[in-house]
Amino acid sequence: MNTPAIRKLEASILAEIDEDIQALSPEPPRVERYLKLSRQMKKASPNWPVSRQPWPTVRLELSTAHVVAHQWIQGLARLLEVYFYTDPLLYPLPWHPMRVIHKWALARLMIFVAQASEAEPEEVKGLEKYRLEYGLVVWALLKEVEENVDKSHGTNTLFALQVKRKLEQVKVDMESSQEYRTRQLLSPEAMEVEWAKLRRIASEISDEWTLS
User: Fold this and answer.
1) Residues 6+ apart with CB under 8 A from 28
2) pTM above 0.85?
3) Which of 190, 180, 197, 183 is nearest to 113 (CA)?
4) Which among 6, 8, 9, 37 has a CA at the least distance from the CA of 21?
């Protein structure tokens, strides 16, 4: 993993990412560009550590590129990779500012996906097979953000207030629907079932796109 060829590829990919970020180009072709970089890394070393650059940066940039291209499921899968596999290694403290921001982005995207699953199911076609309890997942993610935002960004910051308002809004929405029953039954055991589903989404959908 530390051969001259690997180090050369690592430097080359980081330089290409930096060039892309500096260009500030939000065009959908960025998806294919980052998928190409992912395939290059997998080909060079199938066991490239998830916390070693440029994997963390590629995953984050690819999640953004997918969302910009309205590829919601793929963007969700990439953010789930960050949530489960990258951030816990790079930022062990749950209140690290970057980790909290990434959780917030995941929670917001999960809210959108949950709404789309009812209003425009074609937008998120393929997720139905996982039978996600959206209310439970959204609530758990927002609680994680809310429990750590004071340490990460400060108690009375604009971001902290925004998080608390969103949590209250979701609470009101859930209490006016059947989702309230789901929240009442929130437990570590119930969440482990949902986390297992989310890990499957991260693995199956990400691999499907990266290796295709």
Assistant:
1) 65, 68, 69
2) no
3) 197
4) 37
